[in-house]
């Protein structure tokens, strides 16, 4: 089985530009999207309870990719030493940083930057992370293979990539509302085998996958998965 079917819904559409514009316009209110807060809480609870050794509040350095205005980072903050949020939308990055400073957090503890990572050594000042988390965002990425390979390059050897997103239905039907299709490259979500192949292609090992919760989003009952892969120590 290949992941050819994981090519975006419309090959020629510029999903990155569409997402940037879409989330710039929703930066202040995106965490009010019905189901978003509850999903973030449950995702972080699952990450911390399934993989306790990954979370040390004195030492763990984390990246939150496609961080939005910081729902996941704020839940994760008490469990790690520092978090860098990365997103393509300047609007959400500004909201993330405003909320972090309103909570009295120093930028060394929690800050976001606007970037579309390419995997180059000079990006993020060459920083490598113990964990990279990415929630509710894989369905937006035009190439999930490229993004996973790039995120893996930002992990320390032995570091973990943790991806949470919406699970494919048995019949593979579209699960996102039609009015979001211009920003959703993978309208059916992902299954366990999809994620295994994406992670394996990126060189990640010790693949683990679990269904963590059900949420109501886009008017549908959706299942949320958590996938984990580890960057080998060479
Ligand atoms: C549904 S929001 C999820 C935000 C956050 N992870 C959360 O769980 O609350 C999706 C986010 O993905 C970002 N995004 C979309 N396409 C992206 C891309 N190609 N690279 C980086 N971020 C992207 C959007 O700007 C938006 O902030």
Automatic annotation (TrEMBL):
Residues 58-203 form the Methyltransferase domain. The keyword Transferase applies. InterPro entries: Methyltranfer_dom, SAM-dependent_MTases_sf. Signal peptide: none annotated. It comes from Somion occarium. Keywords: Transferase. This is Methyltransferase domain-containing protein.
């Amino acid at each position: 089985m290949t992941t050819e079917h994981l090519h975006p819904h419309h090959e020629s559409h510029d999903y990155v530009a569409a997402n940037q514009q879409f989330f710039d316009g929703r930066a202040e209110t995106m965490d009010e999207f019905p189901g978003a807060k509850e999903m973030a809480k449950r995702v972080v609870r699952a990450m911390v309870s399934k993989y306790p050794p990954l979370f040390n509040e004195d030492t763990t350095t984390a990246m939150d990719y496609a961080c939005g205005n910081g729902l996941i980072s704020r839940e994760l903050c008490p469990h790690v030493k520092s978090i860098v949020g990365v997103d393509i939308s300047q609007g959400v990055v500004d909201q993330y940083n405003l909320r972090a400073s309103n909570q009295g957090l120093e930028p060394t503890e929690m800050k976001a930057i606007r970037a579309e990572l390419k995997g180059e050594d000079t990006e993020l000042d060459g920083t490598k992370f113990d964990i990279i988390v990415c929630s509710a965002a894989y369905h937006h990425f035009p190439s999930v293979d490229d993004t996973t390979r790039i995120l893996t390059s930002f992990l320390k050897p032995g570091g973990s990539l943790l991806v949470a997103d919406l699970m494919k239905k048995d019949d593979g039907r579209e699960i996102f509302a039609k009015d979001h299709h211009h920003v959703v490259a993978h309208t059916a979500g992902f299954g366990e085998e999809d994620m295994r192949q994406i992670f394996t292609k990126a060189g990640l090992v010790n693949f683990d996958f679990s269904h963590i919760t059900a949420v109501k989003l886009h008017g549908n009952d959706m299942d949320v998965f958590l996938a984990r892969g580890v960057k080998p120590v060479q």
